[in-house]
Write a structure and sequence with these properties.
Elements: H1 12-17, H2 27-35, E1 39-43, H3 50-61, H4 67-75, H5 87-90, E2 98-102, H6 111-128, H7 130-133, H8 140-150, H9 156-160, H10 162-174, E3 178-183, H11 187-195, H12 198-213, E4 219-226, H13 232-235, E5 242-245, H14 260-269, H15 276-283, E6 286-288, E7 291-293, H16 296-308, H17 325-332, H18 338-348, E8 353-356, H19 370-379, E9 384-391, E10 394-400, H20 404-422, H21 428-436, H22 439-451, H23 461-472, E11 479-486, E12 489-496, E13 504-512, H24 519-532, H25 535-542, E14 546-555, E15 558-562
Parallel strand pairs: 1-4, 1-5, 2-3, 3-4, 13-14
Antiparallel strand pairs: 6-7, 8-10, 9-10, 11-12, 12-13, 14-15
């Protein structure tokens, strides 16, 4: 019986006690203790194991004041890599009071509701420590404040410094400094920006963090995780003890996400070693420091599928969980055309872009310029580093789309944008040209529309088929059939009036070529296919008498259109 996969589980104790498959990341503990950083911030894309790692740190370091519970927590690490790291690390187990809070609940549309959710989270952490703190505080006023926060009745001022105050209370109770773990620290900032109360939320988070992390005499060390490095001027003002480990930094590079060795071991454990190339194409491609990294969320979900069915097809699992609004916003900016459209086209066809990198951003500056937008895409996992160079004092990154899963996210966003853009096209000249047999006008109109869009799929027939079908589907005069059985084959597109008597049908057969000089040949092949497959004959049998046929060939954004020598019918 193989171990179950821990999909959607980010509690270390739950995973270990219930014998889920666990990818051992416990040497993160060793590296943290060796580096002795006071405040460490790890920025990684969403669903890359940040919450699980913080949970692991909590169960390793936390002294629960209950000997049996501490013993059980030590057992969670039995057989894991940290156990063989040395006695100096084992001595640190169950030795500290630990505060752990996640800020990801603050996703509400108003400041009041978002703050309420944060207050609920903080109150829950107060309640978790109440048994250890009760009776140990020297001041009755401190105990009354503790109870106010725990009962969700604190004043606004109480909550501004409540993490620092909790660390003070725990130091009095334990006579030891406290470890503070903060997960998804930037979620309140991102949410506040998109809902219009960024300044208010920044003031609250700044006060919360400064009091707890800046010159806090009760702090042993702190670990913070998030998606983006928010600038010090935003919420980390004056925090000189902060060490940031972004995806550009080589330290801790293998602890968030799965490295290839771990993926191979998992595939072998479940008897699916032959699936390596598929998961590599779809979910690999990230580069943290110089370490190759796979998306762990997608790997686990795909593993569950292939364990049941070895031939299960890969899916864009990450696309269904992450907030992809940033990609949609990038695509929405294409209406200006120019360089941005060219760069995105190049990315979608397997190319690269080079941009200056700025690690410190604020959410309210992402849309100030395109450089910030590209940086946001990189640090949140929608682009990967290919290479880096220094020009003067500025670092430039050459970036590409990481894998087929992320490519799907871009392409889906482009499809939505294209549908929206096509609604604004003036289509009457194209429709009239099709009905009148004006091939030159059809070429002109289709090429014009192609120039305003973005191409991908390496300009394959499937791209042009979807593009032209999208243009024609809004013509209320005709029904459109796509790849329907007609004659002895499948015509690419057929337009038919609902009424057969005195009605009209149009057959469109499409070809794509790799050289401009081959376009005329492509048109002839399309027309020959219409004739050989008897597409028009099938329409005559339905009762249509007025039938038009077009062979259409595409090369990049060029279009050529030809009709049979007999024209209509």
């Amino acid at each position: 019986m193989k171990k179950p996969l821990p999909i959607g589980r980010d509690n270390f104790k739950d995973i270990r006690r219930n014998d889920f498959y666990y990818v051992d990341k416990t040497l993160l503990i060793q590296e943290l203790l060796d580096k002795k950083g006071e405040v460490s911030l790890f920025t990684r894309p969403r669903r890359f194991g940040k919450t699980l790692n913080l949970s692991m740190l909590r169960y390793y370091f936390e002294d629960t004041k209950d000997a049996e519970e501490n013993r059980q927590n030590r057992e969670l690490f039995s057989g894991l890599a940290i156990g063989a790291a040395g006695e100096q690390y084992r001595r640190e187990q169950c030795q500290y009071p630990v505060i752990m809070v996640t800020l990801k609940s603050a996703k509400q549309p108003t400041y009041e509701n978002a703050i309420h959710c944060l207050q609920e989270t903080l109150a829950d952490e107060y309640a978790r420590h109440e048994a250890q703190v009760e009776g140990s505080l020297k001041s009755q006023a401190d105990w009354e404040k503790y109870v106010r926060i725990r009962e969700r009745k604190g004043t606004e001022q109480d909550y501004l410094t409540c993490l620092a105050f909790l660390s003070k209370c725990l130091k009095e109770a334990y006579q030891k400094n406290c470890i503070i773990l903060i997960d998804e620290y930037d979620v309140p900032m991102e949410n506040a920006y998109f809902h219009g109360f960024y300044g208010q939320m920044a003031d609250f988070i700044r006060s919360l963090f400064e009091s707890a992390l800046k010159t806090n005499p009760c702090l042993a060390f702190a670990v913070i995780t998030g998606c983006l490095r928010v600038s010090k001027e935003s919420i980390f003002t004056g925090l000189n003890n902060l060490r940031v480990y972004s995806i550009l930094n080589g330290n801790y590079s293998g602890y968030f996400g799965f490295v290839e060795r771990e993926v191979k071991e998992m595939l072998a454990y479940y008897g699916r070693a032959g699936n390596l190339q598929t998961v590599k194409d779809w979910y690999d491609g990230y580069c943290f420091g110089e370490t190759e990294v796979y998306n762990p969320w997608s790997i686990l979900n795909h593993m569950e599928d292939v364990v049941s069915n070895q031939d299960a097809l890969p899916s864009p699992y990450w696309a269904n969980t992450s907030s992809n609004s940033i990609v949609r916003d990038l695509v929405d900016k294409l209406d200006g055309g120019g360089l941005l459209k060219e760069e995105l086209e190049r990315l979608m066809n397997g190319g690269t872009v080079e941009k200056p990198v700025h690690e410190e951003l604020t959410y309210d500056s992402i849309y100030d310029n395109q450089e910030n937008l590209w940086n946001f895409l990189f640090f949140t996992g929608y682009l990967k580093k290919i290479s880096a160079r220094l020009e003067g004092e500025e670092q430039y990154l050459t970036m590409a789309v990481p894998n087929r899963e992320v490519s799907y996210i871009y392409k889906n966003s482009i499809r939505l944008w294209l549908d929206k853009k096509q609604e604004g096209f003036h289509m009457l000249p194209l429709y009239a040209a099709i009905e009148e047999g004006d091939t030159e006008k059809i070429e002109e109109e289709v090429s014009k529309f192609l120039e305003e869009t973005i191409s991908y799929f390496d300009y394959g027939e499937s791209y042009y088929h979807g593009f032209l079908a999208g243009l024609l589907k809004r013509n209320g005069k005709y029904r459109i059939q796509s790849n329907r059985e007609t004659g002895i084959g499948r015509a690419d597109l057929i337009l038919k009036t609902p009424k057969v008597r005195n009605g009209r049908a149009v057959v469109l057969e499409l070809k794509a070529v790799k050289r401009f000089q081959e376009m005329e040949k492509g048109c002839r092949e399309a027309l020959r296919q219409i004739e050989e497959k008897k597409y028009k004959e099938a329409l005559r049998q339905e009762g249509y008498e007025d039938i038009l046929a077009y062979g259409i060939c595409f090369y990049r954004k060029e279009c050529m259109v030809q009709m049979p020598l007999d024209g209509r019918n």
